[in-house]
Amino acid sequence: MGSFTEGLLERSVQRIMVKDLGITDTSFGATKYKDGKTIEIDVLGVSNGTNNRVVIAEIKSHLRETAIEQIQQQLSDYLYFAPEHKDKELLGLIAYLGSTNIIQQALKAGLIVLIVNDNLLEYYSTNKQYTIKDYNVYDEL
Prior knowledge:
Layout (H helix, E strand, L loop, with lengths): L1 H20 L3 E10 L2 E11 L5 E8 L4 H17 L7 E8 L6 H6 L3 E4 L6 E2 L18
C-alpha cells in the first residue's frame, strides 16, 4: 500500500512544494549516504535565494504517531547528511490518505499536513492558523 500511496501523491506533493513553498528542485525517493549511514526521503525539495529552504516530505497511507516520529527523526538527522544546507529553513511535510485521528498532533509538531479530499490533496488545519516549525537546529550541533 505504501508504494501505491507514494505513486498516487508524490506529483501532487511536488506541485504544492513548487507552487506554495517556493521550491525549485525536487527529488523522489531521495537517498543520502554518509559514514556508512543512510537517510531515505520520499520527496525532497530544495530552493535557494529568496525561498532558501529544504522541505522533507513523507507520504503515508495512514497518519500514525510513528509517522510523525519518523519525519521528526529525518528532520533531526538531515543536516548531518547535508551540512551544505545548514543556512536553509528546514520544514517537514506529511501527506497521507485515510483517517484524521491524530492530525492535531502533527500540527502541534509544526509539520505541514496534506490530506487527500475531493481536490486530491490539500493543506489541512482546523483553523488555518498553526505554526510551521523550522527544524534547522544546525547551530546546536
